[in-house]
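G., the chain you wanted modeled:
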Amino acid sequence: MEYYYTKKENVDPEKKQLVVDDFEFKHLVKVLRKQPGEEITITDGECNIYHCIIKIIGKDKIHCEITGTDFNLFEPKVNVSLYISPLRNAARFEFAIEKAVELGIYSIHPVITDYTVNKNIPGRSKSDRLKKIIISAMSQSQRCFLPVLYDTVTFSDMISNTKDLKNKIVMYEFSDDRSGIKPNNETEGLSVLIGPEGGFSENEISLLKENNWQVKSLGERKLRAETAAIVSIFDIISKPKLL
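Predicted structure as tokens:
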């Protein structure tokens, strides 16, 4: 059973009540045809899980009774942040974001690089679409943490913003380092950087090395950017030693 999402301010734990609204309301009522008396599971995206019974379906809200709660089920213990260049094909970029969320990513940071084809900062409509994709992927994969989508930044700003972070890894097709992704034990956080279709420039790789990014390879085969993102995240999250 997949989870559904509602904002934390829609939950009243003391009264054991919550409300579902916005596009999730439309999904539950118009698409899934949910009825009063049915059981559903809701998350607020902050690791709280609410087992509920639908009591009233209004014009634009579902009113539910909370019958039980859980907290932080099945979330990865390693906090992985994905830094990724927007791709030429918007559908491929959305696919990468969707699958990264399903796998367990904690935050997403779009980065404009030298070879990024579409250097325009996404407008509100595109950002809203991405946020809906993130919520849907979280719900479908039974995650209870809603990954944060940060504003798009330039490559130089990304370097500056991450200068104090440890465990920084960039996937680069010309790297000779095929060793596994090993986190620094001093911190649970790990940042992964994926470039656009054209990869990274030599200048960008030099800057990354100067700023303590580990430059890694995913092997001999040349992968699409969205595939590289999925493989990298799975490699990190699926390894028991990282958990």
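The mean pLDDT is 91.

Shout if anything looks off.
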